[in-house]
Design brief:
12 helices; Butyryl-CoA Dehydrogenase, subunit A, domain 2; four-stranded antiparallel β-sheet; globular
């Protein structure tokens, strides 16, 4: 790792800082200041329009598709400054971080013109339809089908753990389009409108009362024939690109959210005296060292890209697998540490039922009157899912074992 910011990057950093100072509410950047929940909620409702007016949504996209054409280094500086300020930098995670870059990579010119502008303007919300009840880690075993009927695909099947499906306008999903081809070569990547007959969304209520995950059922649902990304039966390759974006986009700034949350946990340990326990202190020190390791690995990833490595070489390959496995297991473990620090107090629901709180990785969450979990308790619940979505920790270990250590591939069932 040998990374030095060029002078133009520092100039761009000052530009971003000035823009944030001009557009964030007074006091936002002042240490220790807090906005009332209602004020913060109102800001979030208008923030997408503010970002779009400034041109910062998907600013690294080419100018011809509405972006600013920022360089990789400028994109890093942009992310760093927004993270430093605690200001959101996206309109819709699934749109601008996952399906948008995938359309840029694989889409036709007509698809880019139709979908990218809507993503940039925050006019269309998305959800991801990959996992199924019997196709999670083994995604290639999916059973959802898409059959061509004239100028439309007819879709039947089920997806599960579909985040934000109840709010989405579109779902980007994988469906089997060729029953006679090998399973990895029989899948297509489709963009399907959600607001139509034949699609049923059933929320999956979590222990804290939230229901961002959903089951989605397709019964003769339809989408245009031209809504295939990357070509018919080529969905596996396209999906690997999307998973690469999912695992790799926060490599250089992802450690920040964990660091802020760890600071909060350390404050709690000092406040209730648990920081005097040498075992708790040791676990806190280990957690801090892991956050620093994430930071260093982020720089390694960036250095590789700046030195000419393509995103495909970095994600979802061995480094992406290692990073995803590392941070997800870290967060699961540190949230268990947080509950140990709280002790029996952690069993008391201490959240504000009417407040909107930010949960790392989860986003804004409104407390519920019937189950008022705190932000820390909600983060504990959410951390249980993080070793699963985006590729389970066990699958990531297989990737590292086979591609780095040269171990033989894991035997397949029945093979």
């Amino acid at each position: 790792m040998d990374l030095t910011y060029p002078p133009e990057a520092d100039e761009f950093r000052l530009e971003i800082r000035q823009w944030l100072e001009d557009h964030l509410p007074p006091g936002w950047l002042t240490a220790g200041s807090e906005m009332a929940p209602a004020e913060r909620a109102e800001l979030m409702r208008s923030w997408t329009d503010t970002l779009f007016a400034g041109g910062w949504i998907c600013a690294t996209w080419p100018v011809e598709y509405g972006g600013k054409g920022l360089s990789t280094m400028q994109g890093v500086v942009l992310n760093e400054e927004f993270a430093r300020a605690g200001a959101p930098l996206r309109a819709d995670f699934f749109g601008d971080t996952l399906v948008g870059p995938t359309i840029l990579r694989w889409g036709t010119e007509e698809q880019k013109q139709e979908f990218l502008t809507a993503i940039l303007q925050g006019r269309v919300s998305w959800c991801q339809g990959f996992s199924e009840p019997e196709a999670g880690s083994d995604l290639a075993s999916l059973k959802t089908t898409a059959t061509l009927d004239g100028d439309e695909w007819v879709i039947n099947g089920q997806k599960v753990w579909t985040t934000q499906a109840q709010h989405a306008d579109y779902i980007f999903l994988l469906a089997r389009t060729n029953p006679d081809a090998p399973r990895h070569k029989a899948i297509s990547y489709l963009l399907v409108p959600m607001k139509q007959p034949g699609i049923e969304v059933r929320p999956i209520v979590q222990p804290d009362g939230s229901a961002e995950f959903n089951e989605v059922f397709f019964t003769n649902a339809r989408c245009p024939r031209d809504n295939v990304i990357g070509g018919v039966d080529n969905g596996w390759a396209v999906a690997m690109t999307t998973l690469g974006f999912e695992r790799g986009t926060s490599a250089t700034t992802g450690h920040r959210r964990f660091g802020k949350e760890l600071d909060r946990i350390i404050e709690l340990a000092r406040a209730n005296g648990r920081a005097e326990d040498p075992l708790i202190r040791q676990r806190l020190a280990a957690a801090w060292s892991k956050v620093k390791i994430m930071e260093v690995n982020g720089w390694r990833s960036l250095t590789g890209v700046l030195n000419g490595a393509s995103p495909d070489e970095t994600y979802p390959g061995t480094l992406g697998a290692t990073n995803k496995m590392f941070w997800s297991e870290y967060h699961r473990d540190v949230m268990e540490l947080a509950m140990d620090i709280l002790g029996m107090d952690g069993q008391i629901l201490s959240g504000d039922a009417g407040a909107e709180e930010y949960v790392p990785g989860y986003g804004q969450r409104r407390g519920r009157a019937d189950y008022p979990a705190s932000a820390l308790q909600a983060s504990f619940f959410f951390s249980r899912s993080e070793t699963i979505w985006g590729g389970t920790a066990q699958v990531q270990r297989n990737i590292v074992g086979e591609r780095v250590l040269g171990l033989p591939k894991e035997p397949r069932p029945g093979g």
